[in-house]
Automatic annotation (TrEMBL):
Organism: Variovorax boronicumulans
Keyword line: Signal
Protein name: Secreted protein
Signal sequence segment: 1-27
């Protein structure tokens, strides 16, 4: 998968549409599965989110849209490392709360920054928060 540079000037709506398409792109990508056992995924996903969420909140407070370009790239790298592609790593299907939380992270952040955008459905943020909580709880058990 070849990533193209996003233009330096963009509308929040176009970025959100791009972010919504990321899961589809990732599902179609040819990525290598991770070397760690699937049981390590919840701990790694929770760690990733624990590191990213405070940075995202700071970017939102600063109204820094540029943060989300890097956040999207980091999310793509994380998902490629774990082989989110169902056929490449079906064992991650046991952790839907963690995969969903990672995939929704950037979109939820952009929706907090520009809540009126059409892709910002009302149930997205609460569903994301529930998934993060469940993923952290699962990681704590490992």
């Amino acid at each position: 998968m070849q990533l193209h540079r996003l233009p330096t000037r963009f509308s929040p709506s176009s970025l959100l549409r791009t972010l919504v398409a990321v899961p589809l792109v990732l599902a179609a990508s040819l990525s290598a599965a991770q070397q760690e056992p699937p049981s390590a995924f919840p701990l790694d996903a929770a760690g990733y989110l624990n590191e990213e969420l405070p940075r995202m909140e700071a970017a939102i407070a600063a109204r820094d849209r540029s943060f989300f370009h890097g956040a999207m790239a980091r999310t793509v790298q994380f998902t490629e490392r774990w082989g989110f592609k169902v056929k490449a790593n079906p064992d991650l299907a046991a952790y839907p709360m963690c995969t969903s939380a990672v995939m929704d992270y950037v979109v939820v952040g952009m929706c907090k920054l520009t809540p009126g955008d059409e892709v910002c459905e009302p149930g997205l943020a609460p569903r994301f928060d529930a998934n993060v909580k469940q993923c952290r709880e699962l990681a704590a058990q490992k």
